[in-house]
Amino acid sequence: MLGSGQTDFALQLKNLSKKLLTVVAWDPQGYGHSRLPDRDFPVDFFERDAKDAVDLMKMLKFKKFSLLGWNEGGITELFAAVKYPSYINKMVIWGAKAYVTKEDKRIYRGIWDVSKWSEKTRKPLEALYGYDYLAKTCEKWVDGIGQFKHLPNGNICRHLLPLVQCPTLIVHGEKDILVARFHADFIHEHVKGSRLHLMPDGKHNLHLRFANEFNKFTENFLQ
């Protein structure tokens, strides 16, 4: 939600090995510097983001590439891997889910009002977006992700998981209070040949809090 390369992946853009990797970060429609338009959340917004991401990489002349996706980005890359398999080499996913539960929806309602966020969490996004856009888009996101709860089995992309063909690493922080462990287990169980890497002290932002560790095992996986 409201993620951008600038706010969410600075420690990957700066510190992932430039000898091993070319690192590209992008901002989906309505996020970061990909504005206008303002962000909206039709039921197919993950598919739209996946197409935009792959189209960007094709425009940049990459014929094959790997994906790293956090939370909403992790869901987006699952769509990309199934819709555009010939382009995807490997995937790393963390903080993502394939369906929405009643408890998930309760958690989302808890973050609906950005005025109640901690200053540490709110300030970087407020600096990027301004308070009004941040608050308005957060409310729309809660409603947008909540719409999947009303679909059969809360489905976002659970039907796609058995179709993933590329090597996949699923990372989960055991102290993540926003995404429960069973979501990572479900993706691991249904993506053939996937690996699950647990970080006992990791929270939702494990790639920032433990950037050196995250970057190292990510590099090893992608090689």
Question: Would you write up a description of this structure?
Answer:
The two termini are 29 Å apart. The chain contains ten helices and four strands, in the order αααβαβαααβαβαα. With 223 residues, it is an alpha/beta fold. α8 (181-190) links the parallel β3 and β4. The protein has a four-stranded parallel beta sheet, with helices on both faces. The protein has helices at 5-8, 10-15, 45-59, 72-83, 102-110, 119-129, 131-146, 181-190, 206-209, 211-222, and strands spanning 65-70, 88-94, 168-173, 195-199. It has a single domain (5-97, 157-222), classed as Alpha/Beta hydrolase fold, catalytic domain (Rossmann fold), CATH 3.40.50.1820. α3 (45-59) crosses α4 (72-83) and α6 packs across α7 (131-146). Helix content is 44%, strand content 11%. InterPro entries: AB_hydrolase_1 (IPR000073), AB_hydrolase_fold (IPR029058). It comes from Sciurus carolinensis (Eastern gray squirrel). Keywords: Hydrolase. One of its GO terms (molecular function) is serine hydrolase activity. Residues 13-109 form the AB hydrolase-1 domain.
